[in-house]
Structures are given as C-alpha cells and as structure tokens.
Amino acid sequence: MSKLFLFGDSFEKIATGVNTGIFDLLHTGVALLSEVGNFLYCNKAFIDMFGFSNDVIGKNVTEIFVTGEHGVMSVIRTQQPVISSSLTINNEKGISFRYPVKDDSGKLRGVVIESIPVSLGRDKLQMLMDTLHNLEKVAQHFEQSRSKQVGRLFTFADIIGESKALMEMKHLGQRFAASHEPILLWGESGSGKELVAQALHMASLRADHPFVTVNCAALPPELIESELFGYDAGAFTGARADGLIGKFEMANGGTIFLDEIGELPLSIQVKLLRVLESGEIQKIAHRGRLYSDFRLIGATNRTLPQMVREGKFREDLYHRLNVFEIYIPPLRERLEDLPLLMRYFIEQSVGGTKAKEIRVDQEVYRLFNLHSWPGNIRELKNVLTYALYSISENNILTKELLPTRFINAIQPPSLPQSHTDTVPAKTTPVWANDINVDLYEVTSDAERNLIKQALKKCRYNKSSVAKKLGISRNKLYRKLHEYGLLEASADDE
Predict the structure, then answer these.
(1) Which CATH superfamily is domain 156-327 in?
(2) Which pTM does this prediction carry?
(3) Mind spelling out the 3-state secondary structure of the chain?
C-alpha cells in the first residue's frame, strides 16, 4: 500500500493496551513497534507464529529478527512501507508488511508489522491481496474526488435567500450537520435538495472526505446493486476485469447522497438497511467482509409515509432514515427571495461586471410573483437564461424577452373555490359503528381533517395555519407531507 498510517499522539496508548482487543480476533500476526523499533504490542496470532512469550515487549526488533535491519529499521529510516515475501515461519514462507505510523504533523511515531503465513491457505492469501488492491483503488479515488471537489461544493452561506422559510431550513441543517445519523431531505423537484446535501456535508466533521452522489432514479434496476455495493473481478458475465468499487465504499469517511431514494427497489432497500445498521457492504462475489464509515443523506420528492402504506417502501428503512428530516421549501413559498435569486443567476450568466448594468422591468417582477413555479429554482434559472440570451443593448430585461411558454403557463396561486364551507357539516364518521377500528387510524383521520379545515379557514397561508394550530411551520410541513396534503395545498395557494 502506498498510503501511510496516520495516528495522533495516542499511538503509545493504543500500542500498550487501549483498543488492541480487535487485533486478537485476527488470524494474521500484528505487532506495534516504537519509532526506534522496540516492541510495544503483539497480538496472539503474532506470538503463536513465532513462539514468542510476552518478554518480547520492550526489546528491539534487531534482537529478535535477523531481518529486522532491512525490514522494520528500513521503514524507520525511509518512512516508507516495506513489503516482503521472504518471511519464513516453521520452514514455511509467508508475507510480511511493515507500515510507518505518522502523526498529523508527519512525525514518525512507530511501525506496524503484519505477518501472514502461507499456512493460512492460498485462498485467504488471495483474499488479503484482493483487499489490499481494493484499498489502494479506494485511496486513489478519494484523492481524485477530493481534488475535483475543492471549491465546488456549496455551503449554507452559498444558498441564496433570506425568507423565513429558507432561514428555518438552514438553521435546522446547521444543527443536524454535526451528527453522524442519516438525514432525509424532502421537497419538490428543482427545489435545491442536492445543494442542501452538499451544505450539510461541508458543515459536518466529514467535510474533508468524499461527497458521493447517486441519482437512484437514473439507474436501471439491474445496475443499482453493482453501482451501490460494487463487485469483484469475475462476478458475472460482462463484469469489468478489475471489478468495481461501489459508491458506499467510495464514501468511506465521508457522505453519500442518495437522490430520489424513494425509487430504490425493495430488494435494494433490504441491503441498504443492513448497511445502515452494521456498516457492512455486501459486495457482489466478494470473499470476506467490507465495512464503510459514511453518513447517509437521502432525498425524495415522494411522500414516503404514503409509499410505506402502499407497500412500496419498507417501514423499517423509513424509520431508520428519518432520524433527522428537513423540508426544502419550494420557490412559491419564498417569493420574497426572488430578487436575490434573480440577481445571482444574472451574475452567473453574464458575469459580475455586465450584470450590474442589467435592470429588470417591474412587469417582470409582477409576472414572476404571479407564477406558481412548479419547476422551482431550476425553472427560474432556465427562464432567466432564455431572456438574457436575447437581451438588447439597453440591458433591460422586459416581459417580451421571457419565453412564450412561461407567459402562457402563468397561473397565480388561487384560493379555494368556496370559503363558505370552512367548517364542514357535522356528519357521523364512517368508523363510528365499527368496534374493530384501529385507534391510530382514527386519530390520524381526525388530525388530517383538522389540518384541512385550518388550511381552508386560513386561506392556505401556512404561517397562519401553524399559528392557529399551535405548532411550528416545520412540524406543519411534516404533517402535510405525511397526510398527502402538501401537493393539494400547494395547488390551492
């Protein structure tokens, strides 16, 4: 392996008993040595291989092994790993790996020895070599991804807008980012879910590690498993000769963003649940176990509770994902952000210098405030790009420059057809005479009806509805989402 181990100032503590229990579970021999080559720790397999007793601790490697001078001591001198196949144990050859251990400042703190005898068997040796090969590929991918991402990922400061709805969303995101638990983003298409996912990653302790994006809706069902979990060489006919590193493996240490997570097949949902519970990756045709430490962010424009009730999404997975939930408000719920967003997209399209010369006619603002923006931020960007392409030398963005399709599609948010029936007539509930009714269903039905009445009475002003019901706007949005009322209320706003 070309990568060096990195430890903080606790290497001596690790080597002298802290967190070493896991080494005794290994079949390979592991020893930890100081920066001068003295033994600090040996696991059981290492002691058994060489017939040592505990009195080896504290002794220098050159006192124990004739190969110590050009093995461990070479690592100390060069601070580079040494891999050798000349290891001899009981007249049997094996493989020995010696790795330098450095702290965050680059100072050498010690050496790790891993010894693998041939007696483990050819299959296990091959498995270990395959694992090392995969680790090398992951390291290369990480370096490439990291270099590509510098300066590209959005932060919460980059998300344009000062509306109350947006500020509430950003506040929640900054709070949740510090956790390592999953986050579920839900909002309409084009509302900026991926930007929020990037911001969450950049605000987390994982910001220096990979941010891996997967669009679940864009992957054919037959390719989803291999893309997410990867496969080893020869896994199936047509597989790549060198195998494939899965997205979960790529995201080790960082964040994986599963966009449109509601589109995952049920068979993949089962495997996703296992990954979330244990961190174990079920790589296709892989011998042995793989683990990945990642933070998952899922996003959907679907109503997952409804999908659960319909049997299209696993309930256990939904509850595992929904530790933290963030609602991304659509553009029509934060129209006060339009001027800032328009200015941003104008600057992005024509450049900062020329953008200062462009004025927007008041009629354009009026039309933009009348529109319901079903395509959200993405639609706004496309409309402005079209108009700016045709802008004249006077640098005034007028109604005439807007796409015809946009003008024809303008439908101002409408009020309910009738407001005389804000309180429905009292009727006997359909469940009144049914003693076998589920209590949860009854209370949910009552809550849903109460919210519907409040929406009508407040003319679909969600701030007023939340205040009337004595709940926060965020909780109201969750309830609208849960009861399938969000789309209906949006249409009527």
Answers:
(1) P-loop containing nucleotide triphosphate hydrolases (3.40.50.300)
(2) 0.57
(3) CCCCEECCCCHHHHHCCCCCHHHHHCCCEEEEEECCCEEEEECHHHHHHHCCCHHHCCCEHHHHCCCCCCCHHHHHHHCCCEEEEEEEECCEEEEEEEEEEECCCCCEEEEEEEEEEHHHCHHHHHHHHHHHHHHHHHHHHHHHHHHHHCCCCCCHHHCCCCCHHHHHHHHHHHHHCCCCCCEEEECCCCCCHHHHHHHHHHCCCCCCCCEEEEEHHHCCHHHHHHHHHEECCCCCCCCCCCCEECHHHHCCCCEEEEECHHHCCHHHHHHHHHHHHHCEECCECCCCCEECCCEEEEEECCCHHHHHHCCCCCHHHHHHHCCEEEECCCHHHCHHHHHHHHHHHHHHHHCHHHHCCCEECHHHHHHHHHCCCCCHHHHHHHHHHHHHHCCCCCCEECHHHCCHHHHHHCCCCCCCCCCCCCCCCCCCCCCCCCCCCCHHHHHHHHHHHHHHHHHHHCCCCHHHHHHHHCCCHHHHHHHHHHCCCHHHHHHHC
Q: What is the pLDDT of residues 203-226, one digit of tens each?
A: 999 998 999 999 999 888 888 888
Give, in words, the CATH class of 332-409. Answer: mainly alpha
Architecture per CATH, domain 5-120, reads as 2-Layer Sandwich (3.30)
Q: Determine the CATH number of domain 439-492.
A: 1.10.10
Domain range annotation of the chain: 5-120, 156-327, 332-409, 439-492
Enumerate residue ranges in the chain where pLDDT < 70: 1-22, 25, 53-54, 84-94, 117-151, 234, 236-239, 241-242, 411-446, 486-493
Give per-residue pLDDT as tens, 239-284: 676 678 889 989 999 999 999 999 999 999 999 999 999 888 888 8
Contact 209, 254 (CB under 8 A): yes
